[in-house]
């Protein structure tokens, strides 16, 4: 399933003006359950960050997480890295328009290559690691880039069906994924072996979150890939399903899951 072309189309549609970009960010915050979990994680640890914290959004995409972090503290400095040059250029232009270019910088970069050393208090990586083959290099680079006691937050699919995979021979729902998800114990151990002193991985997208994801993401994306005509009925579809999606997302956020199709990981250097 080709997901990137749909993301590019949405980005082009909503990136034409400052207002439409803000609306787009709001839509992503509501639709994407991972955003609910990531926002809660950042809020929990925000008080422990210094006033002059340096933060890296590793794989920034449209910049929605960068924008949210920038709004939490006006003294934080944020670097946002993405592999796609056109996306970086677009985000730099938007953040200049909204007056944040003095403390937010988008950079074209490859996370598998060595970067800054001992610079960041917090690194955020959302919906990224499942796209990178050489993930061990990235984990090492994250560790090197963090200051002592710095924190890494990762949100990624688990191996319990996070990419739409239910058995060994399944293909990922999203073609751009290079793996079908991480085993919770395995990624915890790998991060510890990399050198992180404290690692905690929790499941997200339990039963309510999984149902919400099918309603809000999987079914619409499959239909749009099947026929462009579905774009016409998409607003009506979301008008019908969104009340249920919101309730399911809220339930997923507040339940401790024994298993789930997503993982949120907090690792301390």
Description:
- Helices cover 47% and strands 18% of the residues.
- It contains nine helices and seven strands.
- The protein has helices at residues 4-14, 18-31, 33-46, 64-70, 85-97, 135-145, 184-194, 207-226, 230-254, and strands spanning 54-58, 77-82, 104-108, 120-126, 146-157, 198-204, 262-268.
- Strands 3-2-1-4-5-7-6 form a seven-stranded mixed beta sheet, with helices on both faces.
- Helix 5 (85-97) links the parallel strand 2 (77-82) and strand 3 (104-108).
Give the strand order of the largest sheet, numbering strands 1, 2, ... along the chain. 3-2-1-4-5-7-6
Question: Which strand-content bin applies to the residues?
Answer: 15-25%
Distance between the termini: 36 Å
* Structure class: alpha/beta
Task: Give Rg in angstroms.
Answer: 18 Å
Give a short account of the largest sheet.
7 strands, mixed
Helix coverage percent of residues?
Answer: 40-55%
Task: Work out the helix count.
Answer: 9
Q: List how many beta strands DSSP finds.
A: 7
Series of H and E elements: HHHEHEHEEHEHEHHE
Average pLDDT, to the nearest integer?
89
pLDDT below 50 for ≥5 consecutive residues: which ranges? 165-173
What spatial form do the alpha-carbon principal axes imply? globular
């Amino acid at each position: 399933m080709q997901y990137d072309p749909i993301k590019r189309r949405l980005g082009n549609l909503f990136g034409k003006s400052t207002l439409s970009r803000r609306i787009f960010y709001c839509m992503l915050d509501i639709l994407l359950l991972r955003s609910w979990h990531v926002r809660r994680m950042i809020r929990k640890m925000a008080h422990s960050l210094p006033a002059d914290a340096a933060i890296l959004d590793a794989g920034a995409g449209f910049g929605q997480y960068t924008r949210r972090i920038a709004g939490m503290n006006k003294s934080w400095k944020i670097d946002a890295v993405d592999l796609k040059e056109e996306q970086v250029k677009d985000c730099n232009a938007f953040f200049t328009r909204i007056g944040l270019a003095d403390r937010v910088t988008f950079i074209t970069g490859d996370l598998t290559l060595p970067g800054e050393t001992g610079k960041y208090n917090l690194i955020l990586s959302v919906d990224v690691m499942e796209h990178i083959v050489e993930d061990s290099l990235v984990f090492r680079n994250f560790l090197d880039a963090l200051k002592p006691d710095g924190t890494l937050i990762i949100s990624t699919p688990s191996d319990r069906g996070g990419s739409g995979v239910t058995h060994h021979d399944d293909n990922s729902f999203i073609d751009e994924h290079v793996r079908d998800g991480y085993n919770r114990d395995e990624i915890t151990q790998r991060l510890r072996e990399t050198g992180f002193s404290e690692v905690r991985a929790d499941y997200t997208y339990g039963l309510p979150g999984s149902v919400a994801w099918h309603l809000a993401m999987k079914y619409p994306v499959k239909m749009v890939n099947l026929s462009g005509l579905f774009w016409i009925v998409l607003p009506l579809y979301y008008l019908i399903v969104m009340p249920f999606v919101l309730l399911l997302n809220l339930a997923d956020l507040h339940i401790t899951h024994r298993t789930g199709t997503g993982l949120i990981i907090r690792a301390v250097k």
